[in-house]
Amino acid sequence: MAVKRKLVSTRLLKEGMRIDQAIVDGTGRALIEKGAYLDDFQIAYLKTKGIASIFIAEGEVDPDELELQIPQYTRDLIEKAKVPDKPKVKLSESVKKQVCEGVQNLFADPSSENFTDNSVNIANHLTESVLSDDAVAVDLGMLKVSDEYTFKHSVDVAGMSVVIGKNMGLPIDALKELCVAGLLHDVGKAKIPAEVLNKPGKLNDDEFALMKQHSLFGFQILKEKKRFSENIMLGVLQHHEKMNGHGYPQGVDRSRIHKYAKIISVADVFDALVTKRPYKDPFSKNVATEMVMGMSQELDIDMMKIFLHTVILYPVDSIVTLSNGELAKVVENNPDYPLRPKVVGLKHGVVYDLAGDIECAHLIILN
To answer: What are the distances in angstroms from CA 315 to CA 86, 138, 249, 283, 320?
Structure first.
């Protein structure tokens, strides 16, 4: 959608609106840059200065049109500064579809005689697809297949878990087990009534207590099959346990939680945050990453670090909006700081090293 300019009364301004004009003082110095996203302080400033209305930009610039507007010297600078991302996992649409349909069938009938064999076959297919090249990173925009359906969330979690496990150096047999546990971590929800599972509002105490049993139900489903390894069953049982011992269903702490569960927990929390659910809208990838980083008391810190090294939030060549209102192109990612890549401003060719330059400490990526 092309950008549209709209005149808005100052009293109707809201935080996050993008200004489409510069606000200058008597010397011509810009107090608020054109393209900046307004905050409450700036809105209050406009009101105190008696400015009745300002122009606001609505919509997004077409990427193809934007590319044509980049000056040649900026293009040259971008190419010179560009450092390719680590090889990323690529899952074809056919693989995503096959795996998702397979998991849907598993969740629809966990009592099936073929449940175990089908689970292993689907997990092997997904694992081999993830490991088919030298990929060690996940472009979340490419892997993402989730919506409100549990089985699609499970595919996301399994895929991310395998990549995390690969970066840990787990052998192929362990990765296949981990994938099975990731795919089936929520299979116990098959025993939760649909009206509870899909309730759009907040669960009451009894409903929440029942929902918290789904990992135990999943463990029991797998145990009854008598063919799943203890590693897989513990991955399913413990994926909601917390490092501080305040999780469920057993309330065990870090020392008693299986490594599969620690891996799955990180992937599960992140994917749940960025997935639309009946009771909530999705968080953006950057906000979700910040939330995961703040859960060091709940998630295993080593697994969290590997996850952060694994995900690519802003692939090289993607265009982002900085908090100063400037559009910029990503030229290099920093695995230690996935939220703060190096970018080049499209307007003036300014290089912003968001992680390494103290002068950029006040800047963040908005989208």
So the answer is: 10, 10, 38, 19, 10
Q: Which residue has the higher pLDDT, 138 or 55?
A: 55
Least confident interval from 46-50, 60-64, 240-244, 270-274: 60-64
E strand or H helix at 303, and its extent? helix 301-310
SS3 call for 332: strand
Do residues 74 and 346 touch, judged by C-beta distance below 8 A? yes
Where residue 307 falls among pLDDT bands split at 50, 70, 90?
A: very high
Positive or negative: CA dihedral 242, 245, 251, 257: positive
Q: Which long-range contacts (CB under 8 A, 24 or more apart) does 73-78 make?
A: 73/349, 74/344, 74/345, 74/346, 74/348, 74/349, 77/344, 77/349, 77/351, 78/329, 78/331, 78/344
pLDDT confidence bin for 331, thresholds 50/70/90: very high
Give SS3 for 81: helix
Please give the average per-residue pLDDT across 239-264, as a whole number: 96
Task: Please name the helix (run of DSSP H) or strand (run of DSSP E) that holds residue 219, with its range, or none.
Answer: helix 214-225
What is the average pLDDT value for the chain, to the nearest integer?
Answer: 87
Paired strand residues for 190: none
By C-alpha distance, which of 106, 86, 98, 152 is closest to 128?
Answer: 98
pLDDT in tens, 253-274: 999 999 999 999 999 999 889 8
Assess contact for 133 and 92: CB atoms under 8 A.
no
Where are the chain's structural domains?
4-60, 62-84+316-367, 108-312
Query: What angle (nearest 5°) sits at the alpha carbon of residue 212, between those of residues 279 and 162?
Result: 85
Whole-Å CA distances, 161 to 18, 139, 267, 344: 38, 14, 6, 32
What kind of fold does domain 4-60 have according to CATH?
A: Molybdopterin biosynthesis moea protein, domain 2 (3.90.105)
Q: Which two tokens stand for residue 232?
A: 């897989």
CATH code for the domain defined by 108-312: 1.10.3210.10
Report pLDDT for 147.
Answer: 46
How far apart are the C-alpha atoms of 217 and 164, rounded to whole Å?
26
- How far is the CA of 338 from the CAs of 67, 216, 289, in angstroms? 24, 34, 9
